[in-house]
Amino acid sequence: MRPADSRGVAAAILAATSRGYAILPRGGGLSYTAGYTPPTGNAITLDLGGLNRILTIAADDLYVTAQAGVTWKQLHEALAPLALRLPFFGTFSGAGATIGGGLSHGALFFGSARYGSAAENALGLEVALADGTLLRTGLGALARPAKPVLRTFGPDLTGLLTHDGGAFGVKTEATLRVIPTPAHTDYLSFVFADLPAAAAALSAIAREDLAEDIYILDAASVAAATRVSPADMARSLRSVLRAAGGPLQAARALASFVRGGTRPVPDEGWTVHVVAAGRSARAVADDIAIARRLVAKLGGTEIAPIVPRVARADLFAGLNGVLDRDGRRWAALNAKVAHSDARTVIDGFDRLLAPHAGAMARHGVTVTRLCSALGSLAFSFECVFHWPDAWLPLHREAPDPAWLAGLTEPPANPAARELVAALRAATVAFFRDIGAASNQIGRTYPYVDALAPATATLLRQLKTQLDPKGLMNPGVLGL
Description:
Elements: H1 6-17, E1 22-26, E2 43-47, E3 54-58, E4 63-67, H2 72-79, E5 84-85, H3 99-105, H4 112-115, E6 122-128, E7 134-136, H5 157-160, E8 170-177, E9 179-180, E10 184-192, H6 195-207, E11 213-218, H7 219-226, H8 230-243, H9 247-260, E12 270-278, H10 281-297, E13 301-303, H11 306-313, E14 329-338, H12 342-353, H13 357-363, E15 366-374, E16 378-387, H14 393-397, H15 401-405, H16 414-433, H17 447-450, H18 453-466
Helix pairs in contact: 6-12, 8-9, 8-11, 12-16
């Protein structure tokens, strides 16, 4: 089903649930935690792609209301001419990933080091429940209409209905905070000999609230990102120069490219990338200076900031990244811990993998790591498993056809697939053992079973109240 508005979603849900069919909400279709995988054949997928309209941009009151099928790219491009932006403004996959999916599965990245995840910037929701009711939260819940400029007026129902994977209802609209687009932006990149040292630098910068983006890439990730064709490099350079903000800034950006070339980092090492932004050049320069001093104490070496410049200048470039550049598949897992526990998750994951090194080499399985800051309090560790295997339908549908034509699909590789599944299961268990949180829970992480008994009981009671037949995306959150 592909409704075009909220009432159509509500009617479709009621028609399905009244006949005993489960409802599986699908946004951009980019979940890698089985977010909309049918647990039974008696299920209907509800495609939210038809709800693709931006309903209100309130420039004076700094909010925007959009339907759930609007992509992060679409919303960013609508706000940009007004010199406005979401605080958190999208994921790497924002060309296809939707607002509804992001609010259901914990979307984060651009802006998250300062502003948190998508859910933390939501002011209110409209959600279609299992019985066809349309429920509003925030000030939208009032009987007398009010502008939705506050999230909480009484209990935080908006928070209750985010990160639920659609277990409680299907998001049809969302109202999000907007901010004036920062007038000034600057970039830093550093290289470290090992991941713990790089993580210490990330955490130091995050604690001081100096940047909007802070992330770590390993050498393999940077090599893949910078192994581009001359045409791609020219496109990236054009994007950087357009985004520079003036002739002087463009000259500085061009100088970074000339110094860095197409391989701006060493073949070995861990790189930390920083994006600082603010209302004044002086404020941004001060943040950059403090970050430099912090990193200098931790032994980092500054390098040309090509990676963060390109990432910010060429936002939402497309969905070619659903496959590696050599045509291999990948699947990620993530853990969120306190900054003081970063070393625990880094070292523990290395110990988990060590006994499997031989099997991984035999079957062509490799692992990359991406770490980032989620606000000033949380360290995000993401491990990505890569392996050669036959493609899924998404791998053929999402990328640009011309790019896909240059790849060769690997043959089916069930042995590698099974090894990756086993390693992912062991990793999820490890994350649970150390008390890590995760976003994009879906059907991958053991959420309900990981809760304290009283909390798990409350969650099940809420599920029963909102979805008495258990037909709203059954299985997500472990429900």
